């Protein structure tokens, strides 16, 4: 198994974007923050973009809150001009920025007031993933940062993250919405009249499913957004292309649990299949024992023998604890082997389990040191 050289990745000037991806609950946000802190303290001007609504990143960095604007983190021991900034994606505000960039203020206000847009920009499936990449694109275009680190949404499927930009563009440019655009171009004729005349049974079915008011909101929204369809398609392609540039590195994060490793393996396979720049796997919360040569079976046998001879109960209990820990270590090794067997050429770095949750800069430094330690 090749070890993932995180230090080289963070300090290489050619690395401009690191995307941390994986399932939820594996320490992805903490990993992204630790990478950002390590890079800043190595002298790079770094920003961490999180999608985590739990605000763990803000708390660990000593910030009262995070929003759509980068905030500088204090207490960073940065040298040679290094700085650390952090921000949390505001999905709706980012969508609003896209609208403003592609239409005039009057049309933008019409779009913002539309109920369908309000729902879509805050809760539509795939919007969060698309807007995360939209914000990444904005940050990269500004060219203010040596390194941008993205903590991606905890998607239920690895496909969600990679497919979201194109899926949203396809939806906005899709045949159904194009058909719904027709009523907005009829010079005042009602939605129901046009739908009945143009689509007959199809129109009545759609109206029954969606309801007349929602259908009207959708039609009005699509009409207002008509000039932006090409823009969404182009931006989706640019975002996807940005992910494939040599300056981007994907870091898959997992914990030694079956579901997390299975998701990581699936994600790695997808990245490799699409020629995405996969740097490697961070395996978080890995347990270890100080006496690896003492097996669980031997520890239990020793505990039983000592207990039989009346030895100290403390010694007996220590041996049993060691046996439990040894079994856990072996279990985690078997689980991790599922990834390394499937992807023998993908570098891996293991991060030891912390005794408690990381909640401050010192904790992030410990994680960063574990990520970059040399063997």
Structural overview:
The protein is α/β, with parallel strands linked by helices and 375 residues long. The protein has a single domain, classed as Rossmann fold, CATH 3.40.50.300. 57% of the residues lie in helices and 12% in strands. An eight-stranded mixed β-sheet has the order 3-4-2-5-1-6-7-8, sandwiched between helices. Strand 6 (248-254), helix 14 (258-273) and strand 7 (278-286) form a beta-alpha-beta unit.
List descriptors:
375 residues, eight-stranded mixed β-sheet, Rossmann fold, alpha/beta, 17 helices, single chain
Ordered list of secondary-structure elements with their pairings:
Layout: H1 6-11, E1 17-21, H2 28-41, E2 45-50, H3 56-60, E3 71-72, E4 83-88, H4 91-102, H5 105-113, H6 115-123, H7 127-142, E5 147-151, H8 158-172, H9 175-181, H10 191-199, H11 201-210, H12 212-225, H13 229-243, E6 248-254, H14 258-273, E7 278-286, H15 296-308, H16 313-342, E8 348-352, H17 361-372
Parallel strand pairs: 1-5, 1-6, 2-4, 2-5, 6-7, 7-8
Antiparallel strand pairs: 3-4
Helix pairs in contact: 2-17, 4-7, 7-8, 7-13, 8-13, 9-12, 10-11, 11-12, 14-16, 15-16
